[in-house]
Amino acid sequence: MAKYKPQQRRLILIDRKIREGTRFGVLPNSRLLAEQLEVSDKTIRRDIDHLRYDLGAPIEYDSRKHGFFYTERNWQMPAMVMRETDLYAVCIAEEVLKQYSGTPVYDSMYPMLEDLLRALPEDVQMDPVWINERFTFFPQPAPVVDHQVWTQVFKALRKELSLEFDYTNPGYSHSYRRTLNPYHAVSHRGQWYVLGHCHYKKEIRVFAVSRMANVVVTTNRFLIPNDFDFEAYAGKHFGIIFGDREYNVEIHFDPSAAPYVREQVWHETQTIEEGEDGSAVLRFQTNHLLEVRRWVLSWGAGAKVCAPPELRKAVRQDLKEALNGYSDGEDPSDAICPTP
């Protein structure tokens, strides 16, 4: 059974807030605790009941100060059982979370993680320098996202309010104004995306948060359709672009590339057929080919598309155009690199 259930983390933080309030006279209530922990008021009330009736916490409610307090200041929560490996996992999680610095994910989760570490029993200790010396985390290259944009997008997601924003597609110099009912946020290879109903296109579209500007959360509330299911919508995707058609992809990797292909799970539907010469054929189903095409090209001569025909054609055209950029230089106009 997992040691750190969401409720256990909440109980630790609720205990700390009540203890601080009892000491300083500013008592927390369920509404305030719910906002700080980003859960419902009903959830906090259940947690208070669990502390009071299951763990024996001497909690009372002060109707004059509108908050909870401890009638016995020396009461302590039952000791937390923690293995050494659990503590290492928490410290590593702290380092991993730093990769999201500057986003609402980091802003909300990092203080909670610090509270959890501070709430550990005094006899549980570990030098964090050991983690820093033995573990290194190389984050995914991530686009720079304006913090105000992050805040507005996640506010709209949380409160189910429409967003208005300027959006610039890659390769375009001008932006256009869009209104979106945000349904779901996705993190993919260092980039954050939000998808929902686009008022202009009148269909579900995906937008990169880093390409948004002048974001405004409107007062127009919307309801996510009951039949919306992100997993069903994304389907057998390969990346962040989704489509309606299903393709059976087959790619042959030569003996130099095959060992690297075998090491990873590239798609949930994948199968790998081994070749006698050390090569491998990777097969999977996907509903869009653009990111598959880019991925195949990244393998260079080590990968060859066998199917579907439209993917073979697209990769062949990309390679042809790339080769044209590496001509032998006989043409005087053929510069090594174009002048800006």
Question: Can you tell me about this structure?
Answer:
- This protein is an alpha+beta fold and 340 residues long.
- The protein folds into 4 domains: 6-70, Arc Repressor Mutant, subunit A, CATH 1.10.10; 84-134; 152-234, SH3 type barrels (Roll), CATH 2.30.30; 247-324.
- It is 36% helix and 22% strand.
- The chain contains 11 helices and 11 strands.
- The chain has helices at 6-24, 30-37, 41-54, 84-97, 104-118, 128-134, 147-159, 230-234, 258-262, 290-297, 309-324; strands at residues 59-62, 67-70, 161-167, 176-188, 191-198, 203-208, 212-221, 247-253, 271-274, 280-286, 303-307.
- The strands form 3 sheets. Strands 6-5-4-3-7 form a 5-stranded antiparallel beta sheet, covered by helices on one side.
- Strand 5 and strand 6 (203-208) form a beta hairpin.
- Helix 1 (6-24) packs across helix 3 (41-54), helix 2 (30-37) packs across helix 3 and helix 10 (290-297) crosses helix 11.
Backbone structural class: alpha+beta
Give the CA-CA distance, first to last residue: 60 Å
Main sheet specs: 5 strands, antiparallel
CATH topology of the largest domain: SH3 type barrels
Helix coverage percent of residues? Answer: 25-40%
